[in-house]
Known about the structure:
It is a single chain. By secondary structure, the protein is of the alpha+beta class. It has a 5-stranded antiparallel beta sheet. About 35% of the residues are buried.
Amino acid sequence: xxxxxxxxxxxxxxxxxxxxxxxxxxxxxxxxxxxxxxxxxxxxxxxxxxxxxxxxxxxxxxxxxxxxxxxxxxxxxxxxxxxxxxxxxxxxxxxxxxxxxxxxxxxxxxxxxxxxxxxxxxxxxxxxxxxxxxxxxxxxxxxxxxxxxxxxxxxxxxxxxxxxxxxxxxxxxxxxxxxxxxxxxxxxxxxxxxxxxxxxxxxxxxxxxxxxxxxxxxxxxxxxxxxxxxxxxxxxxxxxxxxxxxxxxxxxxxxxxxxxxxxxxxxxxxxxxxxxxxxxxxxxx
Length: 285
């Protein structure tokens, strides 16, 4: 994925995702030869010359002004996250080259805190979505929550993930967008190149999603997990940035108080504490 034309690749990918009819132009019935918008159409919508827009896509101009960025964002129907990503790509100060990845160490206080949470699954994710720490209940909830597991790789290559999550399609989309958002313009990062290269070869879905150039941080949300021991769990999760780290995140799962899922999560916690292998039968006693 190493490239010196980050702006051009991003603009081209986003241009191809905009349907002409969404911006008041004739659609597929007009014998269009390109998917999405033409370069000239983006230029008109953004209020810039076609020649200037072509220079942007070709990488001959990589630092558009804030006014142009905002105009391109409107023309390409970018949301706030996508616009922020474009702004980052256009900023010379944002371009960073790493000779080697730096070691990631979870703060001792965070490690101690999550180990004390016997009823709350908690995971610390690193910059590349590696699991850096997980308490026992998190691993019981999802066995791939184990130190050393890369969560993006597991999402696409570990069949347990697709089997457990009902919203797997949404999870894969947000995982790729979050990876782009986390790494930004660090295209020469060896660790990132290795991960993207492996998944591009081994997963058609990853390759398709990565080519879209979506970028959005992973936010707090809800999910449903089909757990082999306790059954279906409807959970919320919070994504909390850890201060004074290089983009580490604390992910905490919880269920609505008094809900069936809260009861099942408590049961899973008790099974984890006692080491019992039994399943959901205890809920029916």
